[in-house]
Amino acid sequence: MAAAAPAMRAGLAVLAAFLLLLAASGAGAEGAEGALPRFAEAPEYRNGDGAEPGVGELRSALAASFPSLRFEIYPFRADAVTGLISASVRAALEAPLNYARNYLADLLPKCVPRAIYLDSDVLAVDDVRRLWETRLPAAAVVAAPEYCHANFSRYFTDAFWSDPDLGERVFAGRRRAPCYFNTGVMVIDLRRWRSGNYRHRVEQWMELQKEKRIYELGSLPPFLLLFAGEVEAVDHRWNQHGLGGDNILGSCRPLHKGPVSLMHWSGKGKPWDRLDAGRPCPLDHTWKSYDLYIGDGDASQASAPSWASLSSSALPAAVFSW
Ligand SMILES: *[C@@H]1O[C@H](CO)[C@@H](O)[C@H](O)[C@H]1NC(C)=O
């Protein structure tokens, strides 16, 4: 995650997960899905080589970049989830850290009542206090911007919609019609998550996905299955997503209309890749100033420690700050 300094300095609990910095090992991909296309994404030096844990290096990089930030690091053990991961439309979506969001309530101390989850490909350009102050009504476990114009059917397969035990039946009785929401930015009520045993419920959908392919994306669909039609809607300014283009081409995309509090490079195209390749999209330049990674020979930001030695298996899933 790269966050503008004012946002990170807010005296608030912010939870940021480091995702998508790594390519899929494919370790969890099983079954008869071998025919799916594979896309190489992040360059190797960002993916690491499975060497020693880099918690110490992450700690010093964060401390150097955000001197006034108080934070804790909670490592996520990838083996908590690898057996549950199915192949998806894009190899990077199969990386275990994509699923760390399912385990926040377990990773964080029981006394933490709420978390803001942010993907690693977001840039907060506003004070996250405003997002933190989102009011979750009694029934809501998750708050996130909703996109009701998106065709919800397309997030699930025909096998899902045609199964009389699944399909419409799953969403019957929800507070509202189910709409798509993006799981890269979520305010999560951890108490309700824990008491509703949602980690187990996400895992149950992942088990079903292994038996019967009900969706094509990675970690997102189980959240739609559990919370679509129930989430507390947050202003769209908090997830200007899709800046990475689609899941196949990763082409340049402009911002949506309206105010912007958070930019999200969801999709295949990542700003660090496009910058490194010398083919940035116009909005990628905004990312550059906040990228904590310093490549070898990049003397321009030599004051911050290098992230080059962080390995993908060891990148801590969560940084909790207050
Ligand atoms: C939504 O997507 C489904 C499945 O691809 C399609 O059958 C349906 O016509 C679409 N609906 C609209 C309104 O575009």
UniProtKB/TrEMBL annotation:
InterPro entries: Glyco_trans_8 (IPR002495), Glycosyltrans_8_dom-fam (IPR050748), Nucleotide-diphossugar_trans (IPR029044). Pathway: Glycan metabolism; pectin biosynthesis. One of its GO terms (cellular component) is Golgi apparatus. The keyword Repeat does not apply. Keywords: Glycosyltransferase, Signal, Transferase. Its EC number is 2.4.1.-. GO terms for molecular function: glycosyltransferase activity. It holds the Pfam family Glyco_transf_8. Residues 1-29 form the signal peptide. The keyword Transferase applies. It is an enzyme of class 2 (transferase). PANTHER family: GALACTURONOSYLTRANSFERASE-LIKE 9-RELATED, GLYCOSYLTRANSFERASE 8 DOMAIN-CONTAINING PROTEIN. Belongs to the glycosyltransferase 8 family. This is Hexosyltransferase.
